Amino acid sequence: MFTARRFENLLEIQELLRAGRYPFGHFRTIKIVQPKPRLISAAPYPDRVVHHALINIIGPLFERKFIRDSYANQVGKGTHAALDRCTYYARRYRYVWQ
Fold first, then answer.
1. Of 30, 36, 66, 98, which cross-links 70 as Cys (Cβ 3.0–4.6 Å)?
2. What is the pTM of this model?
3. Are residues 45 and 67 in the same domain?
4. 1 and 46 belong to one structural domain
């Protein structure tokens, strides 16, 4: 539905954000059971459009300030990269300080 009126919806979101009146919606919670039981919270679609637009602008500014070993929600990083780095340290050092 959003895509059918994409141009109008984006203009409306832009106007509301500029006026400081954007009404963030309510997250809906979904229970997923595969591969393991967990709850997923999903923002309304227009909110996700706003989230992506913001992260495209401010994401690089924040990422420059992160330490090298910060992996969550970053392009080119993630669980596998974090595990590789952890394995590297585990093989290199005998002890770990938590």
1. 66
2. 0.67
3. no
4. yes
